[in-house]
Write a structure and sequence with these properties.
Strand order of the largest sheet: 10-1-2-11-12-13-14
Strand content: 35-45%
Number of domains: 1
Number of helices: 5
CATH class: Alpha Beta
Pfam families: TANGO2 (PF05742)
Mean pLDDT: 94
Shape: globular
InterPro entries: TANGO2
Largest sheet: 7 strands, antiparallel
Low-confidence stretches: 254-258
CATH superfamily: Penicillin V Acylase, Chain A
CATH topology: Penicillin V Acylase, Chain A
Organism: Candidatus Accumulibacter aalborgensis
Number of strands: 14
Helix content: 10-25%
CATH architecture: 4-Layer Sandwich
Protein name: Transport and Golgi organization protein 2 homolog
Distance between the termini: 25 Å
Radius of gyration: 17 Å
Structural class: alpha+beta
Length: about 260
């Protein structure tokens, strides 16, 4: 997952709204979002290589999402799976703050990551590449790419601005998927330096990433209404950026319905 923009208690009717793109190598197998057979309260995609996930939600209003921290010079070859950090929170019952404290204590075992976790009452954030301890987030709009929270990379700044406008159109979904589909490449003078070659910095500067072997695999919109109804829409893409699948699930408590 390489871009997440979310609103936490920033809309009068929707306490949680998340728009996110997952970028990954096309050769890495993954399953689209579904309710997990071994944990039927969890709705999430599945990384079929390591078994974890990048974003998910539960019937109990738990939410978690992860991005990798991009640093071409620091990679552990025997690191633990970062996707397990999302999966373990979704399948557990530990409060957000306590869970991130546990994660922070073991953070050296992982390659760089950023992690959002929410238990319905609070939303918290932690990165093992920053100097700050886990922190509870105040109401507001937040953005995350492959650096620290709200780092003003050009694609994140443009995505946050478009996201703020899209919030005013809810329950419409199209504006969120439009911002997630932005393929504009940032001029070289505005590119960050993250330790990868310039060609890759250019490719990765777009909100929707396209290259021959790596790119945006899924775009997700997650909304939770103040009445408790949660809706997740996930679109999957192939190497040509063509939609090859869509998942739409909505639930309130144990009631499953179709998103509208």
């Amino acid at each position: 997952m390489c871009l997440i923009v979310l609103a936490w208690q920033a809309h009068p009717d929707y306490p949680l709204v998340v728009a996110a793109n997952r970028d990954e190598f096309f050769s890495r197998p993954a399953a689209p979002a579904t309710f997990w057979p071994e944990a039927p309260q969890v709705l999430a995609g599945r990384d079929l290589e390591a078994g974890g996930t990048w974003l998910g939600v539960s019937r109990g209003q738990r939410f978690a999402a992860l991005t990798n921290y991009r640093d071409g010079s620091k990679q552990l070859v025997d690191a633990r799976s970062r996707g397990a950090l999302v999966a373990d929170f979704l399948t557990g019952n530990t409060r957000s703050d306590a869970y991130l404290a546990q994660v922070a204590a073991a953070s050296a075992a992982y390659n760089g990551f950023n992690l959002f976790v929410g238990d319905g009452e609070s939303l918290a954030y932690y990165s093992n590449r920053g100097d700050d301890p886990p922190r509870r987030l105040m109401p507001g709009v937040y953005g995350l790419s492959n650096h620290l929270l709200d780092t003003q990379w050009p694609k994140l700044a443009s995505a946050k601005a478009a996201f703020a406008e899209a919030l005013t159109t809810l329950p419409a979904q199209a504006p969120f998927f439009e911002l997630l589909a932005d393929q504009e490449i940032v001029p070289d003078s505005h590119l960050p330096e993250t330790g990868v070659p310039l060609e890759w910095e250019r490719i990765l500067s777009a909100v929707f990433v396209r290259s021959e072997n790596y790119g945006t695999r899924a775009a997700t919109l997650l909304t939770r209404h103040r009445n408790g109804q949660t809706c997740l829409v996930e679109r999957s893409f192939d190497e040509a950026a063509v939609v090859v699948g869509e998942v739409c699930e909505a639930f309130q408590s144990s009631l499953i319905s179709t998103c509208v």
